[in-house]
Design a protein that fits this description.
A 7-stranded mixed beta sheet has the order 3-2-1-4-5-7-6, with helices on both faces. It is built from 10 helices and 7 strands. It starts with 17 loop residues before the first helix and ends with a strand. Helix 4 links the parallel strand 2 and strand 3.
Length: 265
């Protein structure tokens, strides 16, 4: 497991496979579970830490931006900025914004997150969302300085990232020992990252930058590992309910295909 990518790795842009991304990530139960866990975590913290407040929200590397757009729809007083490196992904996000009736209240910015500073002109945000971005960055640790610059005092950071241990565990469960002995890198069409960041590394970054962790959740803590779809696994509503039930419970939270850390500056 390589916790930090080599220096020559570039940030990933999903422009060429945006339709595949939308279908693969959010076209089924996997995406439904991800959105359910993220929505539950964020909603709970906002209700306790910033109840009924109009918020300045930044979604970095937003992709289809479902969470930030749902927040924009829930409160028209929120100021929402949505960013992604992929123009195609943001085009789909804008179409979804039109469907929700919030297209005129949301700002969309297409650029690498490194170029956002010029666009944001020193703004501060009450909530920054960064979901499934770290594992696709060439220099993931550098984004911590970005969070420090644009997160307001007492601001909230929602950080969701791929769990490298989940790939090892799934290959063990499936008996794919050859993948562990001689791992092969995923190709450019794959949505499995070749250089995910280990959770202990992410936690060390957060601690070094004085972020207080409020919630740790696992996303898809069991459903990805079930080789046989039997019993309750055949009922999507029950799967989502059980994923939510065990998302924060140890040891299951550490087994998520993705991990969600919600923290406060």
């Amino acid at each position: 497991m390589n916790p930090i990518p080599p220096d020559d790795i570039q940030d990933r842009n999903f422009d060429t496979i945006s339709e595949h991304f939308a279908k693969k990530v959010y076209g089924g139960l996997k995406g439904r579970i991800r959105l359910a866990v993220l929505t539950h975590d964020i909603g709970e913290v906002l209700a306790t830490k910033k109840p009924n407040q109009p918020l300045r929200i930044l979604d970095v590397g937003a992709g289809l931006a479902q969470i930030s757009l749902s927040l924009a729809q829930a409160n028209p007083h929120h100021q929402v900025v949505i960013n992604d490196i992929s123009d195609n992904m943001l085009t789909m996000a804008k179409e979804h914004a039109n469907t929700l009736g919030v297209a005129d209240t949301v700002q969309f910015i297409t650029c690498p997150y490194q170029d956002l500073a010029e666009q944001l002109s020193g703004q501060k945000f009450d909530l920054i969302l960064c979901h499934a971005v770290l594992e696709w960055l060439g220099q993931p640790q550098q984004i911590m300085a970005f969070f420090d610059e644009f997160l307001a005092d007492d601001g909230l950071l929602s950080l969701c990232f791929y769990n490298p241990a989940s790939k090892i565990y799934r290959n063990l469960v499936m008996g794919n020992f050859y993948q562990l002995d001689t791992p092969r890198p995923a190709d450019n069409k794959s949505l499995t990252p070749n250089h995910p960041v280990a959770p202990e590394v992410v936690e060390s970054w957060l601690a070094a930058h004085d972020y207080q962790v409020l919630i740790r959740s696992g996303i898809r803590v069991f459903s990805d590992y079930a080789p046989l779809k039997r019993g309750g696994l055949n009922h999507p509503d029950d799967v989502v309910a059980m994923e939510l039930k065990y998302a924060r419970q140890a040891p299951f939270c550490a087994m998520g295909r993705y991990l969600h850390i919600l923290c406060q500056k």
